[in-house]
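Lab intake sheet, docking and co-folding queue.

SAMPLE TYPE: protein with bound small molecule
LIGAND NAME: zinc ion
LIGAND FORMAT: SMILES
REQUESTED OUTPUT: full 3D complex as structure tokens
PRIORITY: normal
SUBMITTED BY: R.K., bench team

The fields below were copied directly from the construct record.
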Amino acid sequence: MTPAFVVAGSPEIIRVTAPRDAHVEGDWDGHALQFFPGHATDAWYALAGVDVEAAPGPAAVASTIRITVHHPGHDNADEVRQTIAIHPAHYRTTSLTVAPKFVEPGPDELKRIAAESEIKKKAYAGTADRPLWAGDFAAPVAAKPTDSFGTRRMLNGKLAAVHKGMDFRAASGTVVHAGNAGTVVLAQPLYYEGNCVIVDHGLGLMSLYMHFSRIDVKPGQRVTKGQRLGLSGATGRVTGPHLHWAIRWQGAMLDPAKVLRLKLSELR
Ligand SMILES: [Zn+2]
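RESULT FIELD (auto-filled):
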């Protein structure tokens, strides 16, 4: 198993050495690990990650990875358990001013937000049971990202939320590309996200694109890496035009900068 020291918000690749005809399964603190075969005949991999908010406070939090390898024709399975320390990342706090309706939504807005949370839940549940990605991730726009993942944001003077994505300074109308191959599972306007596209890359891994001025894809559509998804804009809860790009693995929000550095092309 590879990770020994994990920082909240980090994506991880877990490698297990087992023959190709073995059945490998596991879990990590309530998340199922879904293994896929690698290039090497005895390599199995699973993607995993720790949510950005997983470890508040200064102390490391212990978590356990459990992996079971079943060999065909054998009754006994090999089980491995490893305790992993999760360390908090160090995040800044910043202040922003947005339209008041985004900090204190009225009853109609709250109804809309609740309905949209169900729509998102359905989209998240629609992940493929096999990898759909092809090689490494690529940045969705040719614009400078800001180093803001994990920042605690005071919105209009109230601590509102941890920033769970990467912002690119993209002028309205900038073409936004799929960060990797996958299937569109959501493409519609949402209250906070604005015009939003979510692409499923399989095994619980999804990329989210927010605040578009225009959406060019439909739910159910297969997209290749680099395919145009729409145009960036300033819809939803924003202070100005930009692209918010987020990566989600089984409910955990991961640092897109680290996902861009994952060497997925070396795995399979
Ligand atoms: Zn953002």
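REVIEWER NOTE: The chain has two helices and 22 strands.
SIGN-OFF: pending second check by T.M.
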